[in-house]
Structures are given as structure tokens and as C-alpha cells.
Design brief:
- This is Transposase.
- The protein is mainly alpha-helical and about 55 residues long.
- The model has no long low-confidence stretch (mean pLDDT about 90).
- The radius of gyration is 11 Å and the shape is globular.
- Helix 1 crosses helix 3.
- Helices cover about 85% and strands about 0% of the residues.
- About 0% of the residues are buried.
- The longest helix is centred in the first third of the chain and has 18 residues.
- It has one domain.
Length: about 55
């Protein structure tokens, strides 16, 4: 998987997490994700969004 594909995959996961209304732990448990990875990508996209403005 390329870096761009990985970024796109995590962006979709973040959108799904935000739309779910679940806690990070609950979302990760339901989707078999590592909570530390979710937190990493949330920080990464939060910073990216801030720079894109």
C-alpha cells in the first residue's frame, strides 16, 4: 500500500469515527483498530487541516 493510499484509508476511518458518535476506544474495538494509531492519525489530520486553512 502506498503512502497516499494509507492516508486516504485513514482519512475515511477518521470520517467514520467522527460520524459514529462513539468514543475512540469503542470505535476502535468495533473496527478492530489500534487506539494509538487512531490517535496518531487524528493528530496528523488535525495539524494538516490547520495548515491548509
Amino acid at each position: 500500500m502506498s503512502k497516499e493510499e494509507l492516508r486516504a484509508q485513514w482519512l475515511e476511518r477518521i470520517k467514520a469515527y467522527k460520524a459514529s458518535g462513539l468514543t475512540q476506544a469503542a470505535f476502535c474495538k468495533e473496527n478492530n483498530l489500534n487506539i494509538k494509531q487512531l490517535c496518531y492519525w487524528l493528530r496528523k489530520y488535525r495539524n494538516k487541516i490547520m495548515w491548509d486553512i
